[in-house]
Design brief:
This protein is mainly α and 98 residues long. The protein contains 5 helices and 4 strands. Strands 1-2 form a two-stranded parallel ribbon. Helix 1 crosses helix 2 and helix 2 packs across helix 3. The radius of gyration is 12 Å and the shape is globular. It starts with a helix and ends in a 5-residue tail after the last helix.
Length: 98
């Protein structure tokens, strides 16, 4: 997986700019940063995202990361993101990354 420093910084800036109560998908972030695969966004979050609002990045289905689902949903709910069951309602809170 080849990711440039500029792409890492672009992804970091995009995630940092997602307002509380809104979310973005791995795919949206990959597209906005010029990456070829949403998994690259996940890699950036894992390796260089400790200081970012990681909870605001979700899958395209609206479901949180499996290994942190309860914590992620709690954090998003506390921020005011609309949630139904175990999904974030993307239509209501998808961040505009332009």
């Amino acid at each position: 997986m080849v990711v440039t420093d500029a792409q890492v910084e672009r992804v970091r800036a995009l995630i940092a700019a997602i307002p509380p109560g809104q979310v973005s998908t791995y795919g949206d972030l990959a597209n906005a940063a010029g990456l070829t695969n949403p998994r690259q966004v996940g890699w950036i979050l894992r390796t260089d995202g400790a200081d970012l609002p990681w909870q605001r990045v979700i899958t395209a289905s609206g479901r949180p990361a499996i290994h942190q689902a309860a914590e992620q949903l709690t954090l998003l709910r506390d921020e005011g993101a609309p949630i139904s069951g175990d999904r974030v309602l993307l239509r209501e809170c998808r961040a505009d990354l332009r």
